[in-house]
Amino acid sequence: MKTVKQNWQLAPVTLTLTIGMVLVFVMQLVLSGGLAISQAILLKMGAQDAPDIILHHEWWRLLTAGFLHANGMHLLLNVLVFYYLGRILESALGHWQLAALFLFSIVTGNLAELAFLSRLGTIGIGASGGVFGLIAAIIYLGWMEKRPGFWQGQAKTMLLFVALNVLFDIFTPNIGHWAHAVGFIGGGLLAPALLQSTYAKQTFRRPRGRSSLGLVLCGLLVFALGLWIYVRFGGY
C-alpha cells in the first residue's frame, strides 16, 4: 500500500493514464464478448477512421484512438514502456508537462497517419505515438543534461530502442509508421518548452529562445499536417 501511495504522489498522471488504458481495454473485451476485438467495436469506441474524421468531423478520434489497443500484447507493450518512461519524466518535468507531452505526441502522430494514409479503410489505434514522444523527450534531456549522468544514459538506451523499433517496423505489417515517426518529432519539439520545474532548471541546459522556438515549430507541424489533410481530401 505504501508503494502505491508513493507512486501516486510522485506520478499521478502516469498512474492515471496507465489505469485508464487498462480499463478501456477491459471495456473493449466486455463489449466484444471475448478476446477477439472487432473493428466495429474499435470504431464505436473512438478508433481513428478517415471517413468519420473527414466527413463527420469527429476530430476527437485523433486523441481517443491512442487509448485503444488491438489485443493484450499490444496493450502490455505500450503500457509497460509508457509507465516506465512516464514515471521518470513526470518526476523530472512535472504533472501537466507529462500529460501535455504524451497527449500532444498522440495527436500529432495520428494526424500524420491520417495525412499519409495509404488506404481509407484502415483504422488507427494505440498509444505508441505518445510513447515515442516520451522517448524523444528523454533523448533531448540527455543531450541537455548539464553534467552527463542518469539522463545521458537513458538517452543512449532510448536511441538503441528507436533503432531496434525501426528495424522491427520495416518487417512488420499494420504498424503505424507515421504515428511513431511524427509522435517522436512532436515530443522532441515540445520538450524544450517543458523544462519549467525546479529540478529541470537545475539539471538541464535551457538555451535562450529554445522554448519559444519549440512551441512555434509544434504549431507549424500541426498546421502543415492539417493543411495537407485539407488539400488531400479536397477540403472538409
Automatic annotation (TrEMBL):
The keyword Membrane is annotated on this UniProt entry: yes
Subcellular location per the Swiss-Prot or TrEMBL entry: Membrane
Transmembrane segments: 12-42, 62-86, 98-117, 123-143, 155-172, 178-200, 212-231
Keywords, ordered alphabetically: Hydrolase, Membrane, Transmembrane, Transmembrane helix
Membrane disposition: Multi-pass membrane protein
Domain Peptidase S54 rhomboid as annotated: residue spans: 57-195
Cross-referenced InterPro entries: Peptidase_S54_rhomboid_dom (IPR022764), Rhomboid-like_sf (IPR035952), Rhomboid_protease_S54 (IPR050925)
Pfam families: Rhomboid (PF01694)
GO cellular component: membrane
Main location: membrane
Domain of life: Bacteria
Molecular function in Gene Ontology: serine-type endopeptidase activity
Family, similarity comment: Belongs to the peptidase S54 family.
Record's protein name: S54 family peptidase
Lineage: Bacteria, Bacillati, Bacillota, Bacilli, Lactobacillales
